[in-house]
Each structure stands twice: as C-alpha cells, then as structure tokens.
Amino acid sequence: MGMMDIAGQIVSYTYQYFDNFGFLLLSGIGLIVIYGVMGVINMAHGELMMIGAYIAVSTFYAGVPAPLAVILGGVGAGLAGMIIERLVIRHFYNQLLSSLVVTWGVSLIISQGTLFVLGPSIMNMPTPLGSFNVGPFAFGIYRLVMFATAIGLIAGVWAIFRWTKLGTQAQATMENPTMASALGIDTRQVYTLTFGLGSALGGVAGGMFAMTATISPFFGQNYTPMAFITVVVGGGANPILGLAYAGLYLAGVQTISSNLVNEYIGYVSVMAAAFLALLVMPSGISDFFAQRRTRRMQR
Amino acid sequence: MRSFVSPLVRVVRPFTGPQTLGNSPLFWVCWLATVILLVLLPVFGSRYQIITASNFLISAILAMSLCLIWGYCGILSLGQAAFYCIGGYAYGIVAMNLIDRQGNTDLAIAAGIAAPAAFAALIGALMFYSRLKGVYVAILMLVTSLLLGLFMRQTADPSYTIGAAYLGGMNGLAPAKASDPSLPSIILGFGDMTLEFDGRGRSFYWLVVGVAISIYLGLRWIVNSSFGYVLVALREDPERTETFGYDVRLMQLAAFCLSAAIAGLAGTLYTAWGTYIHPDGFSVAANILVVIWVAVGGRKDLTAVVVSTVALNWISIELATWGEISMLMLGFILVIAILIAPEGVFTGIGAAIGRLTRRGQSGGALDIKPAPAASNMMPKRS
Question: What is the spatial distance between Cα A279 and Cα B198, in angstroms, rounded to a whole number?
Fold first, then answer.
C-alpha cells in the first residue's frame, strides 16, 4: 500500500466519522430541543423533515438559490410545527405516553396526506459542490457542508438558550414549569415557540438531506430511527451537550462497525451501543452528568 | 330469568372484576350471543367473509397483547408488530424445515410463541432492569422493529437460508430449493392423527375463533387475578408498588414476555392464514395500526380493544374501496379519538351502558360480585 493509499484510508475514516456525526446531529437536533424543554418525543419529526425537504426542493426548482431554499424549508416546517402544537400537542402536556401516540397519529396524517395529494412520485435535487480526491478515494464536499451546518445549528440553538429571552424562559420552564408560570412566564407560549423551533430545525435538516437523497412522502422514516436513538442516549437535561455526546459516541460505533462488516451491522451496532449506554446511564448521558453534578454540589 | 342467570354467574365469576368492563349478566348474555354468531358465521357467511373474519380475529389477538402491557401494565411498546412478525417468521422457518419429517406443525407453533417471548425476555431484561423511562422503552421498541425490518429486507441474497427456508428479502419467506416444501398452514398432529386447518377454509376460522376466545378469557382471568392487580398497581404507581415489596422489574418483564408470546401466536396464525410472511410487517405502518386499534378502543379494557379492532379493520376494508385513504382516515380517527375520548371510544360507550343499566335495575341484585381478590392480595416477597 502506498503512502497515498494510507492517507486516503485515514481521510476516509475521518470523513465517514464526521459524515455520520453530522447526520446524527442534523436529524436529532430538532427532536432533542423539543424533548429537552417539553419532555415530548415528537414522533412527527420525520414528517416535518419531509415538509422541509419538499419545500426546499420545490422552491429550488422555482429558481430560489439552494441555501435560501433550505431556509425556506425550515420556515415552512417551523410554521407547520407551531400549528400542530396549537391544535394538538397543547392538550397533552405532562402526558408523555399519550403525546407519543398523538404525535404518531399526526405523522400518519401528514405522510399519508402527502401521499394522497402528491402521489408516490419521488423528487430529487442535485448534490452541489462536487468532490475532492485523496489517493484513490473521492469525497463529496457537500457532506462537509452538512457537518458544518449541523455545528452551526447547534451553536445557534446554544446561543438562543444562552442569550435570548426565549432561551431564559425555556430554561426556567425546563427546570420547573409551575414555578416558571407563577413568575409570569407564559409557558404555553414557550412551548409553542420551542415546538416551532424544533420543527424548523427538522425542516432545515430535511432540506439539507434532500440534496443527498430522493424524497417521497415517507422520506422522514429514513432518518427518524437514528434520530430517536441519538435523543434517547443523549437525554433531555442538557439537550445540546447530550446530543453532542451521543452523536460523538454513536457515530464512532457506526463508522467502525459499518467499515468492518457492512452498513446494516453498523445500524445494529448503534442500537447495541445505545442499550449499553442506557444500562449505565438509564436516562441518557446529559441527565447522568446533571445528576452527578447535583450530587457533587450537595456534598 | 334468575334460574337462567345464576349458573352463568358462577361460570363467569373468575373472568369478572374491577379491572374489566362487562361484569353484568346482561353483558355475558350478549357475549354468549356474539360467540354463537361467530361460530355460526360459516353457515350463513360467504367464503370471503370467513377469510376476512379470520384475519380480523387474528388482529384482535395482537391488539389484546398490546392492551395487556400498555393498558394494564402501563408499558407502551410502539413496536408490538415486531413480536408478531418474529412469531410469524419463526413459525414459517420451523414449519418448512419439519413438515416433511413430522407431518405436523406442532413444533412450529411452539416456536412461533417461544421465539418472540425469548426475544422479549432478552430485550426486556435490558430495558426494565436498567429502569429505563417509559418513553424510551416505547421508542426503542419501535426502533428495534424497524431495524429488524431493515435486516429482513436485505436478505434477498441466496445465502440467507435456514435449512429448507429462504428468507427471501422483500419477496418474503420462501422454500430454499424447488424440492423443498412451501410454507404450510396449521396442521395439528398427535402421532398419526393429524388435523389440517387450511387458512382459506372454515376449520381454520373455527380454530381462530377458539384461540381468540381462549386468549380473551385467559387475559380477563389474569387481569382480575392478584397478578393483574399488581400489574395495574405498576401502571398507577411503580414506586409505591415497589415499597409494598413487589419486584417491579420482574413483574414488568413477565407481563412483557407474556404479551410477546400472545403477539407471536397471532403472528403464527397470520402466517398460517396466508402461508406468507413479509418484512413489511416490521414497518412503521404495521406498528402504528396496533397502537391505533388499542388507543381508539380504550387501552384499559380488553373488550373495548377487541371491539375497536374489529370495527376499525372493517372500516379500513370499506375505505379501501375508495382508494388509498384508509391509513389517512385511521390517522384522523386516532388523533380525534384521543382528543375527544382520551380513555378510548369503546371504553366510554361501555361505561355509559353500564351506568344506564345500573340505573335501570335499582339495587342491582343481579350484579355479579367480583371474585374476592382482596384476600389473595398479600404481597409476595422476593
């Protein structure tokens, strides 16, 4: 094996790792924001991604530049999310299992409704930006953009939580909703905006993914299993750190095992790794760290 | 009236209690009438109706398995169809391998029940002994089902054969070689005596009716027994149940395995019914259907779940003639039902009928007294 082959091999592993990591971050970020603030796991997340993807692709073909099309996808999905929250989710605060079932029903309505209106036709969008070569391997540049976007979105969410009024109110609501509303915070509005934000993040992710895959009414189902695992492993105590830790860990497992055996074994290993992590940290990585910190402070 | 009712009261007493709706003699008379109608259906129904009714009852068995863990034990599994399909595949694989040698499918049926139960024991031990949150259990079961489906889809490669059975990827389970037997329907055998139940025929329908009634009565007996009281206690307050000395994790695991076994039995019957099993059974659509049947009917009552499963299946078939809208409509039915009747539509109707009849017969002298459960409710120490 020549020098370039080895270099190519190393770059290949690193590239795949960041690709998988970016994939988990993008597909999970909207979900974990909602879970962290509201305790609701939004089963319709994949369908909101699908809405974002359809809007991005159709506006792209209408002549809108790709980055703007993706943002429009996010805006559309965010609005859809806020409508869903107002109509349905607000009846199910503090009923975790019921909110799971009802959002699943919503996801069925959205995906089957799209199938009914648009038919099973699939659309796609060219992957932009070309590729670069290291040794015998070619790497798409767009995947790196996706990773950078994922990091950018996480930084953005962190900034919202850290510096905006909504962020402060959301943190107070996470901590103690009754107390927060007693202090004059409109928790219902916080929930609606959070759900909208999470949905918009899903829409942006859907728009990004639309440039790498064909989209159909069931587009979202390709992304949600891994997103769910990431969120469950991450936990809701600190959504951003949880997502980052879970992504770092699971992407590592996936990269190694899918390279050593095959892609399917990669998924199964992620599942096994998730069970392993949950054996040690039953409510997720970030809850685990939060509890440890509390215990240390009490000492 | 009394002379007719009192022996009935004695017979049904083990199946009645506060954990189930339908404890009055009136209910059991209606129940008996329904059972007689079901048994007589082949006399006046068409062949198509019988085949369809078999399928409905198999669905009802699957729905009851979810009702047990979700409604009574408070464990929601969004991947209940996984157990159904594991049962179906296990039945198919064992049946195709043994049918030529043994001439019956007894062992295959046992495999169809045992395989999902064993899988549930493994995955349930991981989940309950690490005291996973309920939402996480629900989600992980769905993800497990989807990953199993993903695996089954990519088994089109000829190397995926188990003896005489070829997994077949998207084409479903098939014989490995042309000389191998195809997937058989149920053949019960004792030595040389065999009883064949062809999935398209009356005998299979009667078999399904028998199994469904047994499961229904068995589950009613279980949920009204002391074990059932513990399950309901787990649903209401796991921590308090634990302080009473029950091993919550073990109880959850037991209920989970029992539920998986029943779902596996339903999957076995389904595979024998159509002599066909396919990876789509692991899909989101298959899993959400079970949740819809149970949630719309009323997860906390077996009768409500059975009625809603049959009703919704019938609605789906009727809607199918209008085009591909049945899943969309079921989505609306689910969301609207949960918004309007969070405890379930048929539970609500059942409770209303109960109130009306009780008002009708003042005093309620004919009410069946539930089995004295309090006396055998001593906590078991572990």
Answer: 46
Q: Judging by DSSP bridges, how do beta strands B161-162 and B165-166 pair with one another?
A: antiparallel
Kindly tell me the sign of the dihedral angle through the C-alpha atoms of A205, A158, A156, A180.
positive
Residue showing tokens 């479903």: B172
CA B64 to chain centre: 4
Nearest to A81 by CA among A202, A171, A164, A166: A202
Q: What is the pLDDT of residues A202-251, one digit of tens each?
A: 999 998 888 888 888 888 888 888 888 888 888 877 888 888 888 888 88
What is this model's ipTM?
Answer: 0.86
Size (chain A), residues: 299
Q: Are B255 and B233 spatial neighbours (Cβ–Cβ below 8 Å)?
A: no
Residues 6+ apart with CB under 8 A from A159: none
Whether residue A211 contacts residue A126, with contact meaning beta carbons closer than 8 Å, is answered with yes
Rounded Cα–Cα distance for residues B236 and A62 (Å): 54
Q: Does B159 touch chain A (CB under 8 A)?
A: no
What pTM was estimated for this model as a whole?
Answer: 0.88
Euclidean distance between CA atoms B53 and B333, whole angstroms? 22
Cα-flanking dihedrals φ and ψ of residue B377, to 5°? -105, 20
Domain map (residue ranges) of chain B = 65-282, 284-369
Within 8 A of B335 by CB-CB distance, chain A residues are 88, 102, 105-106, 109
Please give the full DSSP string across B15-75, using - where no structure is assigned: G-STTSS--SHHHHHHHHHHHHHHHHHHHHS-HHHHHHHHHHHHHHHHHHHHIIIIIIT--
Q: For Cα atoms B301, A98, B67, give the angle at the middle one, nearest 5 degrees.
A: 25
B312/B293 Cα distance (integer angstroms): 7
Per CB-CB distance under 8 Å, the chain B contacts of A291 are none
Domain layout of chain A by residue ranges = 1-9+39-219, 223-299
Of B135, B150, B291, the CB nearest to A96: B135
